[in-house]
Specification:
Alpha-Beta Plaits, four-stranded antiparallel sheet, globular, alpha+beta
């Protein structure tokens, strides 16, 4: 991962009859690392990696938000990873 790479977590609120369809469409995007269907306020959690913040902005505006069935999103940009897959990282 380059220094300017952006890792983000996107919470997606989807139309109730479109959750499966949205998950399948989002899963096809090359920037998407993981897709989880979850309980709670949002329907899907998506882990994303892009080369920089401009690429992330374009990805969010032109790909995620144009998927049919996506009602809204909330994004968290990863600032630092303390632990991943059970191991401390120091990233």
């Amino acid at each position: 991962m380059s220094v300017s790479a952006v890792r983000a977590i996107i919470h997606i609120f989807a139309e109730s009859n479109s959750i499966e369809k949205v998950a399948k469409q989002v899963s096809k995007l090359p920037e998407v690392v993981d897709v989880y269907e979850v309980t709670g306020e949002f329907d899907l959690i998506v882990f994303v990696m892009t080369k920089d913040i401009k690429a992330f902005r374009d990805f969010l505006k032109n790909k995620i938000l144009t998927v049919e069935g996506v009602k809204s999103t909330v994004t968290s940009i990863v600032l630092y990873t303390h632990k991943k897959e059970g191991e401390e990282t120091g990233e």
